[in-house]
Amino acid sequence: MDARAYRLKCLKESDVFEVDFAEVLQMKTTIIQAATESTNYRQHAMTTAKSLHRVAADITDHDWLQKLEKSGFIPEKNTVWVLEGVLYYLSHSNAMEVLKIIADNCTIAHTVLLADFMNKSSTTLSSSLFHFYSDWPDHLLPSLGFSDVKLSQIGDPDAHFGLLHDPLNLFNKLRSLPRSLQTHPDDGTPCCRLYLVKASGSPN
Ligand SMILES: C[S@@+](CC[C@H](N)C(=O)[O-])C[C@H]1O[C@@H](n2cnc3c(N)ncnc32)[C@H](O)[C@@H]1O
């Protein structure tokens, strides 16, 4: 349900590809269509991106990249991959496979990955929903072929958005604890972290 292609002016030179399940994309198309027919919302239903392609695919299937390419995605073009709110729903092997496929793209074109990673403790919030985790995405991603990994936690200066002023805020408290800790030293509750990660890679 991401709306970047409709709200980010910086995408005016970019081709945007949205990959999701067919039924999710269908629902989105219906909502956007309703907005274009409404005088109140019409201007918000105009894309700001150069082009927008909706690609119905399950990223746990082996052919999602081919589907993307059939929709016009060109692996040789510089690409920013946004995996936001996705990886932790996948099994470990599926998530690793997706990351490897994207890492392989680094050998073809300048590639940037933006992704959020749950740490192990976060997956205990729902063992039926959350599967994949990494406590050290800043170590994992270079092992797959990415470089320049930058990791932020909610509340860091670049992930603050002027909203987290209270030093006792849950996220600010977490940031002051070593990342290796799985439980709070005070009360033994899990240290649930969400890492916001940027990584990149380029052909040599
Ligand atoms: C929490 S949402 C976040 C989406 C997006 N970042 C946004 O802001 O709207 C997770 C999305 O991932 C999609 N998704 C989950 N598993 C998937 C899979 N195996 N293949 C393709 N899409 C998947 C879901 O349908 C959902 O739209």
From TrEMBL:
<protein>
    <submittedName>
        <fullName>Leucine carboxyl methyltransferase</fullName>
    </submittedName>
</protein>
<dbReference type="InterPro" id="IPR029063">
    <property type="entry name" value="SAM-dependent_MTases_sf"/>
</dbReference>
<dbReference type="GO" id="GO:0008168">
    <property type="term" value="F:methyltransferase activity"/>
</dbReference>
<keyword id="KW-0808">Transferase</keyword>
<dbReference type="GO" id="GO:0032259">
    <property type="term" value="P:methylation"/>
</dbReference>
<dbReference type="Pfam" id="PF04072">
    <property type="entry name" value="LCM"/>
</dbReference>
<keyword id="KW-0489">Methyltransferase</keyword>
<dbReference type="InterPro" id="IPR007213">
    <property type="entry name" value="Ppm1/Ppm2/Tcmp"/>
</dbReference>
